[in-house]
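batch job 7 of whatever, protein = Putative rna-directed dna polymerase from transposon bs
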Amino acid sequence: HININSKTCIDNAFTNLQSQCFTIDTIATAISDHEALLMKLKVNQHIKNFRLVRSINEKNLEKFKKQISEVDWNCLNIYNDSNGKFNCFLNMFEQISNNSFPYKKIYIGKKWKLKQSDTLCKLKSFVDFLYDAFKQSGNPDLKQHFEYYKNIYNHEMEVERKHTNVKDIVSSDNKQKAVWKIIKKETGENIYDSAEHETPSANDFNTYFRNVAVNITKDLPDPSTKPEAFMTKVPVNGRSFFLYPVTPEEVSIIIKQIKNKSSFDAFGINAKMLKAVEEYIALPLCEIANCIFSTGQFPINMKIARVVPLHKSGSRQAASNYRPIALLPVFSKIIEKLLAVRILNFFESNKYLCNSQFGFRKMMNTTDAILHFLTFVQDSLENHKHCGALFCDLSKAFDCVPHDVLLRKLEYYGFRGVTLTLMESYFTERRQFVDWHGAVSTSVELGKIGVAQGSIMGPLLFIIFGNDLPTNLSCHSTQFTDDTVLAVADQNVEQLDEKVHTALQEAQDWLTSNKIVLNNKKTVNIKFTSSRRHPDLQGGEVKYLGITMDSLLTWSKHVDTICSKISKATYAIRRIHAIINEECARDVYFAICHSIISYGILAWGHSSHMSRVMDLQKRAIRAIAGVSAREHCKPLFTKYKILTAPCQYILRQAIVTHENRSNLILRGDLHDYNTRSSKDVVVPTFNSKTSQGSVIGCRIYNILPDVWKGENVATFRRILKNLLLDNPCYSVNDFFTISCVEITNYK
């Protein structure tokens, strides 16, 4: 400890090491008037693990654009096959990429360090100079100058840190991940470095990922019925699938729509690089796509996947606890998107896809699937029936799809000649390698099962593969790709169990025939009832598409999950508030909290537990504003333009009612009188409490001005949202207290 009048040693370091294993000294830190102890230990040298990444910045992008713009793509005309054309294009693109974006080493586990500007570096040097001068002279004036400039330096460092954090969050594709990374960085919380722990090798991962589906299906019994027998129940009109030509404009649109991810494929190319030169590569890619469509040959270099293992849970030493993230060539995604659009249009226009499938289809999402299932349950309960549901878990369903069966199904739907040849070429000769902390496995060829992971075509092909399942069931079904639920209803409990057993057997027959494995341990059988007089039917819960349901549909378990997530999000906002600005804090809220509340709100929003969500949402808003727990929140919701949870529910209910207005009965349809309520929707009557949420949309819609009801969906949504932003509601009943005059004034 050094001050003007004395110098004392009051700090100590204790160790059980031998004296030859360490040295100790003091260093000036300029943090306080104490010097720090520096203890140097002799340790074994640690081998640093690293990975190679491209250096992509504005300067390199401009260089890349210039070189790509000067390429003469007429060289592609030399080749008549798609492999030749694409390899020629890829070689030139890869060569320019390597020249423009050189690789650099990024060491894994390297600690984050704030990069200081030149001004900050000079200020830091000046602060150090003042400290050294004060220490040598003991001059009180120098100490005063040192403390003054040290405070300036600390303030500028905070400003720089905020600016860096805001920039990292705003520019991130995954804002939630970026937020938690900054929190861990600022709090000093350790981020697990798998490079320093024993994990499977890249080759071990590759072997496991390649064989997992084979090991699952090898013990399947021989089916008693061939897949073709199930297909015939899907009516087809005999039309053939045709691939119409691609235009450069279509390619440009698809490139712009690709997610701006920073991950690199097997050739070291990512979406950001493609988007930078979209106008120059649209024409050659169009030529390659048309060649693929006309020859029925999918290029081999578009079928190489770079796989990165991602830990799920459990021991990090077991390959089974990792999820394979397959990164396919970026160029293959463009071709797949062109192909997928044409296939989906063919199936939709011919109405081949079953109505119970909601996965990856136009104007459909997971909420639609959830509501489709809940409508059946609520209708059953309304008719005084119990409802039994089987939530089927299919083991590695995407990886187990047999190519030969899928090709026969495509042929049944109208794939013939070159289109069928193209699909066969798409499946065969696929290869993958695993990239694990800089170590790359050998490339292996994949088997004759499974749709390509990480592909655009994969989900669509699985939907086509399972399209004949619902037509071979005698029960109600809901599907979102491989997430399947079977539902039956009956007043008698014993007959209900028989129907559940029959549904399971029908599904099992189809699955066995199509070589898909049902995971009996994870398949859940739950019964829904509206009466508490049947305790034997109550109990149990299930999570379907992210929504937790209990047997009485009270939604308490789901709200528990939401509240837990909001609490974590609120902690993140509060913790990060000091190191970002208010505007960025609002962005963080929308990134990690808003979607938690809004997801599936049409299903659970009428629950009495909504008040718990509302209370926690208020905490999150106060965390954004940095105010006390007693601060009034309604002005804050309006200020930040954030909808309360009940307002989100009101908005979604009103929009759904508006979209389906033509399918609803108006009061004016029941009589010929010109009454004030003639344009109101007739509100259905329900006896069951679980069905009451179905009428809220009609009640909300009826108090809105008639002039709004003539607007298109986008305008209707904008007007109602503005009303709700200016009038935050803490419950649905609050909305009905807004005056008619106030509502009418919104345009």
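notes: The two ends are 70 Å apart (CA to CA).
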